[in-house]
Design goal:
This protein is about 20% helix and about 35% strand. The chain is of the alpha+beta class. The N and C termini lie far apart (about 45 Å).
């Protein structure tokens, strides 16, 4: 059963043209380039990457994984993804076998080479012409639920309060038929805001297999809830073809993801992938209809905050032509630092700059 998130569709319909222009403009380095970048990128082809055993690698990013699809810059891909940890957690939470899509059962049975992370990832997608030193722009379209429920909880030793919750707990959360809300408990209704926790590329070849748990230079498990429908993420390219993968669907999550899980679910979306030649990035950047977002990642939360701030200062200098002193002080006056997550060894902080500041 597929449930369309109507709220996400409405958002996409009203904002897609604006985001198309703004997404490319983030990487422009001068006025002429920025004006040129405002033109929408026409999709050359539309692909369908279904949830199937041959299209999933489980728990890692690795440059040696064989791509399951090759696309050109500007192509669109409809991607289906599977909930983190697969069916075990869903079944333990009380999901009946009849409620589980057959495609998920097929992946669960066939993909046995897993880990060290917990995330089934759809891909990788080979982007023709992508080389180290380039960047990818991934535009996220409307988001659909592949089943009308999710699961949230915690594991022994996990989360931010492991000594206070030294046991396991799982809670099945069923979604309202509208796909907009979920009844969490009597008197507690949650708005649903689906997004993908993990969007990443292959790490450098010499990094080998990298866990899908902590985010890193390959980006991966950011768990930033702003990555919903209508958002755009810019990723660095480390290997030929980039090898883009996506997964870890969340129906709702608070900043920090303090128990170690969001409301984990299975999602589908249509992405558009645009290649930017010779536009290197050190860290991911995100654009939404309202904000530009820079990201800091480090095992130390203070250092993650410094990185996110430094990235925003660099953005303001390069893209908005501010002096470095003005950029730094503007960050203090108008940029919000948020803790993305604190539970995956590598801590995440993202800096949010409102677009409305600039005319």
């Amino acid at each position: 059963m597929r449930w369309l998130n109507c709220r996400a569709c409405v958002l996409l319909g009203g904002l897609s043209l604006f985001l198309t222009a703004a997404g490319i403009g983030l990487l422009a380095r001068d006025a002429e380039a920025e004006a040129s970048a405002l033109r929408p990128v026409r999709a050359q082809q539309v692909h369908d990457l279904k949830l199937a055993p041959d299209n999933v690698h489980w728990g890692y990013y690795d440059a040696r994984v064989k791509p399951v699809l090759t696309i050109a810059s500007g192509d669109r891909v409809r991607v289906e993804t599977m909930a983190a940890r697969g069916l075990e957690r869903l079944r333990l939470a009380g999901v009946a076998e009849s409620e589980i899509p057959e495609s998920m059962k097929a992946v669960e049975a066939a993909v046995t080479a897993r880990g060290p992370g917990a995330h089934p990832l759809t891909g990788p997608i080979f982007v023709s012409g992508a080389e180290p030193g380039d960047s990818l722009e991934v535009r996220i379209g409307d988001i659909q639920f592949l089943h009308p429920y999710g699961v949230i909880g915690f594991l022994p030793g996990g989360g931010t309060l492991p000594s206070e919750f030294p046991y396991a707990y799982l809670k099945l959360v069923r979604f309202d038929p509208s796909g907009r809300t979920a009844r969490f408990a009597p008197g507690v209704t949650l708005p649903l805001a689906p997004f993908f926790g993990s969007i990443g590329v292959a790490p450098p070849v010499l990094s080998g297999r990298v866990s899908s748990g902590p985010p890193g230079p390959h980006v991966g498990n950011l768990d930033i809830k702003e990555l919903g429908a209508g958002s755009t993420i810019f990723l660095p390219v480390h290997v030929p073809g980039a090898l883009l993968s996506i997964g870890d669907g969340h129906a709702a999550q608070g900043d920090g993801e303090v128990t170690g899980t969001a409301i984990e679910t299975s999602l589908a979306t249509t992405i558009q992938v645009v290649l930017h030649k010779k536009k290197p990035l050190r860290f991911a950047r995100i654009e939404t209809a309202t904000h530009v977002i820079t990201v800091g990642l480090d095992p130390d939360l203070d250092e993650a905050a410094r990185i996110a701030t430094r990235e925003m200062v660099d953005y303001l200098v390069a893209e908005k032509r501010l002096s470095r002193d003005d950029a730094y002080t503007l960050c203090s006056a108008a940029v919000d630092l948020r803790v993305s997550q604190v539970v995956d060894v590598t801590k995440g902080v993202h800096a949010m700059l409102a677009r409305s500041l600039f005319q």
